Design the sequence.
């Protein structure tokens, strides 16, 4: 399951550099996560790094993107050119 940045985002800029898959970009009003690049840090870290650093807890799971850990790991491998 990919993550989603909600409108509670304060544009503090701390999440974007933490994403190992470059899935986070600045949107029109607040940061956004590309669900095709988000692996919830599976393959890189034990926990999603954007969630760890977010000061306002505005990064929940995206209810529209249900993926298992195995699917996230496969996406990680594809993004890394290992799949």
Sequence:
């Amino acid at each position: 399951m990919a993550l989603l940045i909600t409108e509670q985002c304060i544009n503090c800029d701390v999440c974007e550099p933490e994403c190992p898959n470059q899935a986070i970009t600045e949107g029109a009003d607040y940061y956004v996560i590309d669900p095709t690049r988000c692996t919830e840090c599976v393959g890189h870290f034990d926990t999603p790094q954007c969630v760890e650093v977010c000061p306002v807890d505005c990064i929940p799971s995206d209810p529209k993107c249900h993926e298992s850990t195995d699917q996230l790991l496969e996406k990680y491998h594809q993004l890394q050119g290992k799949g």
Observations:
- The chain is about 20% helix and 5% strand.
- Helices lie at 49-53, 69-79.
- The longest helix spans residues 69-79.
